[in-house]
Every structure is written in structure tokens, then in C-alpha cells.
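Dear support,

I submitted the protein below through the web form. The confirmation email said the job was done, but the results page showed an empty box. After a refresh the structure appeared. I'm attaching both so you can tell me whether what I see now is the final result or a partial one.
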Amino acid sequence: MIFYIYLWGIETAAVMLKALLKNAGLLIILIGVIILGIVVFSGAQTNASLAISLVLIIVGLIGHIVIGKMLE
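What the results page shows now:
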């Protein structure tokens, strides 16, 4: 499903894609934090689940920086 933004009467899917891409790093960080929160509050801390959340947070941070510089 493609969402369109009407900008002065012109449909532009590229504007929406750029906004989504700009926030992709933050979404990955948020997913990592949610996984980390679920693991910690459930008490089922394993090295694999903690490593997955750590990798998601680091990749999201690096991705946010790199994508932010590319889109400027």
C-alpha cells in the first residue's frame, strides 16, 4: 500500500518515502528498546535476546546518523 501526500495538488509518494526513510533509524531503535523492555520485565533474560536488542539499537543509531547525512 502506497500512501500519497497531496502537496499543492500534486501526488508525491517520494515525499512520504523520504519522511519514512528519515525516521527509519528511530523506528529500529524503538523496536530494540521495546524488545529490551519486554525481556527485562518478563525476567527471561538470555544472552541472545539481549544481543538482538543491542544490535537493533546500535544499527538504528548508526542508520539514523548515516541516513540523516545522506538526506540533507
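Response: this is the final, complete result; the empty box was a page-load delay. The first helix runs from residue 13 to 22.
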